């Protein structure tokens, strides 16, 4: 009896210690996602989210979305969710971003629970550590965009599917299947990339399944559930003419896109060179300036890849039971990557980390495999553990850059609105040539003129018309090089016909010109 009691006490103490550690880890993840949440100005993409989610009725919102020429037309579900969220909590920076933060936290909880069920406590703890510290997860949890909703929906898909994966014998799989179908159907109205992830899950499940009949019983209802979304996409003009929708084209090789995707997924986009600075100038020089931190990342990533290969090949009886689950996540990872690569090559769109949640999830499950131990190889295992811990520290470093380093900030509409409002007068009028007009009154500038629809072939005359022949015209433009290329014009030469350039203020991804009439 005494030995039995002592054993129970040890188990309880061990359980308490584990729950304490995983609880603290989750608390860190919550803190990082809400820390300084309203500190930064909303930027262009977030402004688009507010614009598309604004309206007096659901019909107004849907009409606005389906009539746009950007990829936002394929994300109606997110904008409807954001609309109702704003109805409940308002439209402050904290309010609109808190939706993403909560979804980011929900993603950690769902994936950690799934890992616990499939692999056990140790694997779940390491996965929770990575997800909580992840600069990729933190960054997009503080953005008023659809990315954490996609992560959350994809996490739910995995959780529901995990109820029938090998080594699982859970009752109520019919309920899990219904919920999987519902989540998939809804997710496809949030992004076509949910389709990539779902197809990867389908392929992985097929290849590891020992029961084809059961596989068909699961996936045929899923295919039926996808029909409404398929009709939605095929009914779009894009189905017959891809030029009807604007997507950001890639201006680099697909190899560079691949490298950037995995870099962004592992340590976030604020670890190395700032993205905004990479848009122009000497990229090689900029990369050289950040070479020490990039080499450190490369070293850590290389060690982790070696450790992952070793962990997947481990023959220990302790880990052999997880082989089917390992194969499932490895196949999901490879399938999602290949499908996404083919999609990027065919469509020529700019494949970025933010699009790659379908890779991030299986990658998160594969990473803890690096930490599988063998009594005969302690030195190597200590190295793999050190590499994993350093990876967590690199993510903390990237998070620090995101919070505190101005060079990693996006365009500051708060600052721009204040500047334009302050400089407007009876004889000085400002025009936003490209950007998000919605954000200017949001930050208090009600005087700047929306110039997105101006005819750039006769820009000087158009500016003179909308400013009512004001002596001074202030032209504000976001992402000038992109806009000039898309509209096939040059701002300075177009304005030179009637105006003389007086001054030029260059801000992050934003240019403000003061022109005086000749």
Report the total helices: 25
Strand content: 5-15%
Count of distinct strands: 5
User: How are helices and strands ordered from N to C?
Assistant: HHHHHHHHHHHHHHHHHHHHHEHEHEHHEE
Percentage of residues assigned to helices: 55-70%
Please tell me the total number of domains.
2
Our Rg estimate from Cα atoms comes to 26 Å
Shape: globular
Tell me the strand order in the biggest sheet: 2-1-3-5-4
- What is the arithmetic mean of pLDDT? 92
The largest β sheet comes out as:
5 strands, mixed
State the end-to-end distance. Answer: 99 Å
Uncertain parts:
none
Give the class from helix and strand content and strand pairing: alpha/beta
What does this 3D model show about the protein?
This protein has 518 residues and is an alpha/beta fold. The chain folds into 2 domains: 13-408, no CATH class; 413-517. Helices cover 64% and strands 6% of the residues. It has 25 helices and 5 strands. The chain has helices at residues 2-34, 44-52, 58-66, 76-89, 93-119, 121-133, 135-141, 147-161, 173-187, 193-208, 212-225, 227-234, 254-267, 275-278, 283-289, 291-312, 317-320, 323-347, 357-366, 378-404, 413-423, 439-442, 459-466, 480-487, 491-495, and strands at 428-434, 449-450, 472-478, 499-507, 510-517. The protein has a 5-stranded mixed sheet, sandwiched between helices.
């Amino acid at each position: 009896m005494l030995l039995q009691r002592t054993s129970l006490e040890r188990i309880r103490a061990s359980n308490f210690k584990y729950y304490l550690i995983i609880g603290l880890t989750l608390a860190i993840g919550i803190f990082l996602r809400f820390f300084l949440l309203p500190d930064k100005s909303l930027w262009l993409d977030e402004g688009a989210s507010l614009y598309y989610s604004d309206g007096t009725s659901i019909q107004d919102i849907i009409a606005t979305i389906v009539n746009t020429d950007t990829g936002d037309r394929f994300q109606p579900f997110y904008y409807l969710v954001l609309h109702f969220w704003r109805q409940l909590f308002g439209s402050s920076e904290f309010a609109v971003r808190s939706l993403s933060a909560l979804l980011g936290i929900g993603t950690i909880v769902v994936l950690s629970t799934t890992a616990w069920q499939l692999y056990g406590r140790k694997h779940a703890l390491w996965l929770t550590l990575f997800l909580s510290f992840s600069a990729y997860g933190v960054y997009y949890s503080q953005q008023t965009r659809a990315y954490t909703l996609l992560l959350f929906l994809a996490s739910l898909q995995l959780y529901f599917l995990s109820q029938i994966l090998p080594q699982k014998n859970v009752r109520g799989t019919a309920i899990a299947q219904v919920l999987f179908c519902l989540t998939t159907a809804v997710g496809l109205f949030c992004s076509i990339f949910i389709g990539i992830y779902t197809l990867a899950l389908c392929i992985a499940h097929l290849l590891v399944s020992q029961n084809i009949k059961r596989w068909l019983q699961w996936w045929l209802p899923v295919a039926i559930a996808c029909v409404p979304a398929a009709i939605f996409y095929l009914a779009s003009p894009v189905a017959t003419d891809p030029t009807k929708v604007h997507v950001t084209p890639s201006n680099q090789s697909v190899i560079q896109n691949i490298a950037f995707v995995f870099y962004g997924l592992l340590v976030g986009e604020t670890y190395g060179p700032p993205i905004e600075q990479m848009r122009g100038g000497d990229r090689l020089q900029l990369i050289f300036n950040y070479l020490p931190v990039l080499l450190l990342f490369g070293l850590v990533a290389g060690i982790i890849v070696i450790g992952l290969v070793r962990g997947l090949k481990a023959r220990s009886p302790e880990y052999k039971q997880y082989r089917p689950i390992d194969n499932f996540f490895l196949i999901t990872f490879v399938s999602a990557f290949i499908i996404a690569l083919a999609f990027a090559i065919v469509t020529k769109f700019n494949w970025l980390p933010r699009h790659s949640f379908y890779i991030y999830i299986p990658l998160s499950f594969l990473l803890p495999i690096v930490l599988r131990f063998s009594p005969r190889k302690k030195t190597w295992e200590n190295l793999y553990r050190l590499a994993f811990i350093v990876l967590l520290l690199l993510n903390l470093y990237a998070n620090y850059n995101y919070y505190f380093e101005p060079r990693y900030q996006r365009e500051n509409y708060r600052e721009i609105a204040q500047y334009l409002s302050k400089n407007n007068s009876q004889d000085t009028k400002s025009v936003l040539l490209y950007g998000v007009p919605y954000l200017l009154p949001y930050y208090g500038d009600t005087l700047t003129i929306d110039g997105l629809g101006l005819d750039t072939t006769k820009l000087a005359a158009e500016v003179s018309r909308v400013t009512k022949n004001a002596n001074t015209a202030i032209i504000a433009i976001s992402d000038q090089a992109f806009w000039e290329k898309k509209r096939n014009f040059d701002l300075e030469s177009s304005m030179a016909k009637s105006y003389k350039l007086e001054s030029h203020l260059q801000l992050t991804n934003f240019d403000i010109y003061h022109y005086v009439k000749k």
